[in-house]
Please model this.
Amino acid sequence: MFPKLCYACREYEPLNNQLFCLSCQERLPFVSSKEDALAALEGKDYFPEEISDFSTLFYFTKDSHVAEIIHRIKYEGQYRMAKDLGVLLGEKILLDQDLRKYTIVPVPIHNKRRKDRGYNQAEEIAKGFTMVRDIPIANDYLIRTKHDKSQTAKDKNERSEALKHSFTISPYHERLSHIILIDDVITTGSTINACYTQLKKKSPTHVIVASLGVSI
Ligand SMILES: [Zn+2]
Model:
């Protein structure tokens, strides 16, 4: 059930029933509290101000073990890793909070990309999350309508503007008022912003955001 090699360094065996070896367990940049998670959002121009519930596992920086983990999850087919880290996230998130009203909504990727990749990493994180918290997942509530081939040419504002028109809510799904929005990494906050804008349109919505990482 548990990985043979540490999910971070891929070199040493993890501790019993853990995902990381002892050394990584000690050195990985874990976000230790909700206050620290929220503090990491300060200065993110696009993260919606109304969202005050945010949980995340790691601080994300370039060329780090965390960046490698995310890369494996998104581009190297390691969906199992996403699910296992989703379990960690489920164990960590707001354990004192009553989440019975909530439904998990993974940030969607476009169908074309899902087909190429074979999975949506946010859905895999959600699967792990729900193993510990037993909350329903709605993969079909939020839909990604645009497939951005390359965003690198655009600046931050243009990207954010383009993203706003990249999501829609399914007309067939019952309305959800309490949502845990799950993504892999929060960088500028513009993806969450674009999703949140759509979610609000359908109904007044309480949104908790959970991710594996937050960039700093
Ligand atoms: Zn390690």
Remarks:
- The first strand starts at residue 53 and ends at 60.
